[in-house]
Write a structure and sequence with these properties.
By secondary structure, this protein is α+β, with helices and mostly antiparallel strands. The chain has eleven helices and twelve strands. Bound molecules: adenosine-5'-diphosphate (ADP) and magnesium ion. The site of adenosine-5'-diphosphate has 18 residues, from β5 and α3.
Length: about 375
């Protein structure tokens, strides 16, 4: 029996019918453009969320997470509705709801994706539950459909208007590769991402900062993009060129202009990053990562002092590139660093944080890993 199945047995007193795992993610480049039908280039990290599930005809859901101290939650199936208030269990209920499962269930969650660190523990949780339910009930959904159902759970049940990237990469990533994802049709291409062979490492820096703007700020950025799309009469930012944006500048507000400039330039940076990776040109990749951060900080204004501090300290220590990842206003940054300089860079970042009076950051590294799977 695998470890999550054993833990399920301890909690519920019998073995589960199925267990599954799904990873968190880091986005190499392509931030805040998944909801603009852009291209993104994330990879799955080694850390996963695990789920074990059994079905029954009790008419209730019993849910527990080993990351949450509380007792087992018991929710009548009839109470599953987006209007039901709740906490972390909404991510699980949202997936049950989006997949249309109407059976009683016992569900145990365990995982090691850090929560709320910008590494997408939310999508890992959704993708693990969706993978298990898809198999347990032989629903036959393909991976793009599962990704959209997980997104629906987070958008409509949890109430977070996230894009499609996190769920897609958690479900579709492959070992050793970053996933070039076309957010318009969810088609994917594996792009070999082997930093070790170039004597580099990708350092993940969790700033431990969580600013309150997170949800409202995210929704405002999306609203700006929607407004530009409506005013310029285009289908999405994906259909906008730099030239067209500049020629139509007077039709939109200054804020909308700089938000759109981020979207247009970031989509191009992703395509350029793919070419850089295919040519093993990590110097160019680093430059693109730096440009992405500048665009997120200055045009999209979703960075924060802790993220800028992590990025600046990394670059001062010789990183080829560094940028914030995820929604912003806190969470994590990444830095592409020579493997021999990783310890010195971590120390420089810690010192910069301490000099600024910030909470000590946490560091992670991860190889690009496999997406969700039934165990
Ligand atoms: P991120 O996705 O960057 O980690 P989010 O705020 O989007 O941050 O999602 C984090 C939330 O997801 C947690 O606060 C919790 O509600 C839920 N969550 C994720 N993983 C777990 C888990 N293993 N157990 C319980 N809740 C979890
Ligand atoms: Mg999340």
């Amino acid at each position: 029996m695998n470890s999550i199945a054993q833990k399920f047995q301890e909690v519920f007193g019998h073995p589960p019918d199925i267990s599954a795992a799904a990873p968190g993610r880091v986005n190499l480049i392509g931030e805040h453009i998944d909801y603009s039908e852009g291209f993104v280039l994330p990879f799955a990290i080694q850390d996963c969320t695990f789920v074990a599930i059994s079905k029954n005809d009790s008419g209730t859901l019993k849910i527990a997470s080993l990351q949450r101290e509380s007792e087992i939650l018991e929710i009548p199936l009839a109470d599953i509705s987006p209007s039901r208030s709740g906490d972390w269990e909404k991510y699980v209920l949202g997936v049950v709801w989006a997949l249309g499962v109407t059976s009683g269930l016992e569900i145990l969650i365990d995982g090691n994706v850090p929560l709320g660190a910008g590494l997408s523990s939310s999508a890992a949780l959704e993708a693990s539950v969706a993978t298990a339910l898809n198999s347990l009930f032989s629903l036959g959904h393909d991976l793009p459909t599962l990704a959209r159902l997980c997104q629906r759970a987070e958008n409509d049940y949890v109430g977070m208007p996230c894009g499609i990237m996190d769920q897609s990469v958690s479900l579709m990533a492959n070992d050793g590769s970053a996933l070039l994802l076309d957010c318009r049709d969810l088609s994917t291409t594996n792009i070999s991402f082997d930093v070790a062979s170039a004597n580099l490492e990708l350092l993940i820096i969790d700033t431990q900062a969580h600013h309150e703007l997170v949800d409202g700020g995210y929704a405002q950025r999306r609203a700006s993009c929607d407004s530009v799309v409506a005013k310029l009469g285009i289908i999405s930012m994906r259909h906008l060129s730099s030239e067209q944006l500049n020629n139509n500048r007077e039709k939109i507000t200054e804020t909308e202009y700089i938000r759109a400039r981020h979207a247009v330039t970031e989509i191009q940076r992703v395509l350029d990053a793919v070419k850089a990776l295919e040519a093993n040109d990590f110097v160019h990749l680093g430059a693109l990562i730096n440009e992405s951060h500048a665009s997120l900080r200055d045009d999209y204004t979703v960075s924060c002092p802790e993220l800028d501090c992590a990025v600046n300290a990394s670059i001062s220590s010789g990183a080829l590139g560094a940028r914030m990842v995820g929604g912003g206003f806190g969470g994590s940054a990444i830095a592409l660093i020579k493997a021999s300089e990783i310890e010195a860079t971590k120390q420089a970042i810690e010192k910069a944080f301490s000099d600024s009076g910030f909470v000590k950051p946490r560091f992670f590294t991860s190889l690009p890993s496999q997406g969700a799977r039934v165990l």
